[in-house]
């Protein structure tokens, strides 16, 4: 049961955490 | 090399002094820390500390300044007589550390009584 | 019930996120992948958010009396006042670990937000180290000591808080001390990151110093609050017992005190890098060591330590941290070699080195006393030491430190010359005057004579520093004010020094000149202690729901002191004493009611404790000095640019 809650929370946090990856197109150099 | 000489000497002096302080202070000031069972077989000139559990026969007198009780570690027991203010938490069943000497009368005369603070980090689980 | 699952889930999510952050941060730092560095950092923020969620859930469970959680049942009951129910969060083993993780996450996040200007690699490694530490705590929380464990049957009421713990001090002291402990991880993480990145230069210092200062301030407050609580609530007439729990709170504080001073040498002259890194690392290792000692039950202490399951985990963590730090320091030792030549010993730099040695000496004394039972127990018969050992061994070192506080600030950075000797006349005069005055009033105790003379000297030196500022501004008060504000770090520090000396004087006075009498009095009887005469006028006994309360009245001059003792028959006759204290700046009259007799007489323990107020006042002045000195510090990026070039030698 706790594992289900954990998975849901991780999915919810995903977009926030991965945002720098999402917004930077692969070819362009990274912004500071 | 010069740096070592310059700083090495004061460092050595400080380390030496601290070492001496530790050595001289701990030699005389340390006490044996025993269980009740060990107390019987232990012969010592100075004060010792004995850890054990307070049994149900607490007798207070002299306005709370004097107390006698039996301390046990579940293998051996010893009567204890203490004069002084009791720690708040003192009651049958708690762990105490008595500091003092075992008298010729078979009673441990305690000059200090330390009782353990009630459960802040104890893991006594709730039993159902 | 649901809260248990939600909380456990949040902790698990936090653990996964923390582990992910650690791995990604180290990898992205190594690869210098800026995008991934930021992902790793955000993962740390997300892990912190999970811990915050878990914390909120635990607090809700406590406040709604959700006894399906074992933790709530064990630490509260329906009759416990709300404030104390809320404080149950950090009152037990599992909750205090969650609280620790919470502080670590929040402070860590704050430090990372500000860290981007330090360079991607360093910021990434710092995030990696912080995430690793957070993950360790979350592993323990998830696997070994979860506050969200459920009971199979929900009881109607909890076990409640022992009356001895039902006190305001319980609300403030533990969270401050725990926060202090947790916060030492931040400077450690940045130190480790700097070593990993091979960047041991000035940019690192300002950032690390700021968070070391936060940790130091929290720990200072925690220590003074603990002393205040022990003195006012526990009723044994003292405020420091050299118990292992106290010692492990003191040691990281000593190491960080040394670091905060020694780091100035690195700022000014780029030297003592090995000392600085070692001190920051030592502070954190002492925290981990202390947590292991405190929660494992391996040394005897008045604080209850059952041999708990988390002991081995912290021992393992301690071992890992020691190995990690040792390897890091030795691999990067070449970057720590000082580029410039050492200043002579009689100089400001020399004074800081001596300070480091002396404070490490105190740590060694305290450490030895704390682990003596462990060492002797393993080698043969277990032995313990008590206050006399610590006093005998540490007092001379503290005296030397006071002397250093008197001389050090007046020494120049380079060679000390004639002007220095002239400057030292003020502290010397102060010491001499104090000595003469004390001898004249009849004080003969050698420790007191030494302590107060040196204290006077140290205060004189701090005042001299302020005096120089006044002189330099030539009575232009606006100019003086702007000078004080501009150099507030310096002037705040010397205010803190004054505070420390006041505190030290309070400790010396209350310790060396304490007097005590145990006496049984009939109504109308009198007792005189140290010139103070108290008259026992009578006592009253009241029967309340779960205890009997005995209140005695003692008149003393115009005031009345009412010490009391509550006895809980339902708890085996356990009692709760309320000490009555009459406080003046000169001394405290401190009365403990031991009990009463059938014939109407009552027994008391009366203490006269001189200068105790100075301890609390000194503590407040220290905090004031630190706060005023560091208000509105410029950002990290600006600072190195203004540094004079030669000092910052990049590795």
Range of helix content of chain A: 55-70%
End-to-end C-alpha gap of chain C:
55 Å
Strand content of chain C: 5-15%
Tally the structural domains of chain C: 3
Q: How do the helices and strands follow one another from N- to C-terminus of chain A?
A: H
What shape does the CA trace of chain C take? Answer: globular
Q: What proportion of the residues of chain C is helical, as a percent range?
A: 55-70%
Number of strands of chain C: 11
Distance between the termini of chain A: 40 Å
Mass-distribution shape of chain A: rod-shaped
Low-confidence stretches of chain A: none
Q: pLDDT under 50 segments of chain C (min length 5)? A: 635-651
The assigned structural class of chain C equals: alpha+beta
Please state the CA-atom Rg of chain A, rounded to the nearest Å.
Answer: 14 Å
Could you characterize what this model shows?
- The complex is a heterotrimer of chains A (32), B (128) and C (651).
- With 32 residues, chain A is an all-alpha fold.
- Helices cover 69% and strands 0% of the residues of chain A.
- By secondary structure, chain B is α+β, with helices and mostly antiparallel strands.
- In chain B, strands 2-4-5-7-6 form a 5-stranded mixed beta barrel.
- Chain C is α+β, with helices and mostly antiparallel strands and 651 residues long.
- Chain C folds into 3 domains: 166 residues; 296 residues, no CATH class; 96 residues, no CATH class.
- Chain C has 21 helices and 11 strands.
- In chain C, strands 3, 4, 5, 6, 7 and 8 form a 6-stranded antiparallel beta sheet that branches. Chain C has a 4-stranded antiparallel beta sheet with strand order 2-11-10-9, covered by helices on one side.
- In chain C, α5 packs antiparallel against α6, α7 runs antiparallel to α9 and α10 packs antiparallel against α13.
- Chain C is globular, with a radius of gyration of 27 Å.
- Classes of the chains: A mainly alpha (32), B alpha+beta (128), C alpha+beta (651).
- At the B-C interface, α1 and β1 of B face α3, α13, β1, α14 and β8 of C.
- β1 of chain B pairs antiparallel with β1 of chain C, so a sheet runs across the interface.
């Amino acid at each position: 049961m706790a594992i289900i809650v954990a998975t849901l929370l991780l999915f919810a946090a995903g977009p926030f955490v991965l945002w720098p990856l999402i917004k930077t197109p692969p070819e362009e150099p990274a912004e500071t | 090399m010069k740096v070592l000489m310059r700083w090495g000497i004061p460092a050595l002096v400080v380390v030496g002094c601290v070492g001496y302080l530790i050595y001289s202070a701990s030699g005389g000031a340390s006490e044996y820390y025993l269980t009740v069972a060990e107390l019987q077989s232990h012969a010592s000139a100075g004060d010792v500390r004995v850890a054990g559990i307070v049994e149900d026969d607490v007798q207070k007198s002299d306005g709370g300044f004097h107390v006698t009780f039996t301390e046990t570690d579940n293998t051996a027991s010893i009567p204890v007589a203490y004069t002084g203010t009791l720690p708040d938490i003192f009651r049958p069943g708690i762990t105490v550390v008595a500091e003092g000497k075992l008298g010729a009368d078979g009673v441990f005369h305690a000059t200090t009584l330390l009782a353990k603070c009630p459960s802040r980090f104890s893991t006594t689980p709730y039993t159902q | 019930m649901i809260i248990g699952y939600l909380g456990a889930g949040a902790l698990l999510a936090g653990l996964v996120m923390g582990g992910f952050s650690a791995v990604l941060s180290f990898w992205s730092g190594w690869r210098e992948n800026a995008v991934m560095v930021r992902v790793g950092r955000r993962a740390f923020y997300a892990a912190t958010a999970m811990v915050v969620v878990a914390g909120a859930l635990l607090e809700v469970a406590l406040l709604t009396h959700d006894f399906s959680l074992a933790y709530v049942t064990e630490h509260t009951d329906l009759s416990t006042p709300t404030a104390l129910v809320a404080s149950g969060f950090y009152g037990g083993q599992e909750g205090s670990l969650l609280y620790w993780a919470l502080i670590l996450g929040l402070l860590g996040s704050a430090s990372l937000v500000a860290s981007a200007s330090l360079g991607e690699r360093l910021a990434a490694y710092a995030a990696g180290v912080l995430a690793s530490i957070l993950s360790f705590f979350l592993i323990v929380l998830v696997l070994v000591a979860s506050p969200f464990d459920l009971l199979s049957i929900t009881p109607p009421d909890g076990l409640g808080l022992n009356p001895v713990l039902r006190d305001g001090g319980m609300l403030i002291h533990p969270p401050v001390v725990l926060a202090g402990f947790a916060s030492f991880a931040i400077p450690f993480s940045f130190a480790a990151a700097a070593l990993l990145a091979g960047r041991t230069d000035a940019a690192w210092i300002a950032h690390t110093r700021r968070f070391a200062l936060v940790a130091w301030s929290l720990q200072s407050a925690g220590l003074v609050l603990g002393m205040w609580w022990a003195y006012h609530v526990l009723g044994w007439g003292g405020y420091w017992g050299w118990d292992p729990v106290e010692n492990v709170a003191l040691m990281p504080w000593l190491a960080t005190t040394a670091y905060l001073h020694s780091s100035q040498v690195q700022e000014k002259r780029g030297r003592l890098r090995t000392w600085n890194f070692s001190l920051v690392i030592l502070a954190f290792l002492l925290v981990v060591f202390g947590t292991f000692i405190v929660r494992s039950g391996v040394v005897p202490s008045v604080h209850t330590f059952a041999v708990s399951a988390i002991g081995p985990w912290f021992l393992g963590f301690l071992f890992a941290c020691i190995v990690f730090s040792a390897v890091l320091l030795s691999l990067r030792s070449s970057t720590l070699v000082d580029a410039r030549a050492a200043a002579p010993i009689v100089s400001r730099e020399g004074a800081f080195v001596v300070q480091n040695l002396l404070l490490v000496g105190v740590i060694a004394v305290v450490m030895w006393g704390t682990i003596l039972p462990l060492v002797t127990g393993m080698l043969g018969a277990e032995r313990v030491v008590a206050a006399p050992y610590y006093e005998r061994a540490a007092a001379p070192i503290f005296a030397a430190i006071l002397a250093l506080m008197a001389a050090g600030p007046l020494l120049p950075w380079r060679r000390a010359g004639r002007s220095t000797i002239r400057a030292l006349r003020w502290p010397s005069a102060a010491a001499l005057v104090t000595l003469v005055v004390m001898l004249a009033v009849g004080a003969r105790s050698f420790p007191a004579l030494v302590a107060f003379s040196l204290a006077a000297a140290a205060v004189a030196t701090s005042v001299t520093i302020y005096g120089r500022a006044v002189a330099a501004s030539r009575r232009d008060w606006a100019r003086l004010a702007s000078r004080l504000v501009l150099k507030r770090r310096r002037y705040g520090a010397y205010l803190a020094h004054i505070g420390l000396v006041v505190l030290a004087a309070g400790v010396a006075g209350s310790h060396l000149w304490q007097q005590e009498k145990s006496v049984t009095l009939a109504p109308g009887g009198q007792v005189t202690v140290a010139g103070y005469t108290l008259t026992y006028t009578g006592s009253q006994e009241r029967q309340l729901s779960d205890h009997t309360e005995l209140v005695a009245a003692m008149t003393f001059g115009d005031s009345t002191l009412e010490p009391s003792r509550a006895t809980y028959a339902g708890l085996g006759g356990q009692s709760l004493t309320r000490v009555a204290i009459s406080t003046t700046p000169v001394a405290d009259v401190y009365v403990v009611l031991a009990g009463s007799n059938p014939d109407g007489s009552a027994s008391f323990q009366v203490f006269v404790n001189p200068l105790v107020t100075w301890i609390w006042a000194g503590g407040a002045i220290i905090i004031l000095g630190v706060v005023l000195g560091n208000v509105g510090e410029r950002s990290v990026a600006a600072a190195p640019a203004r540094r004079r070039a030669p000092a910052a030698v990049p590795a």
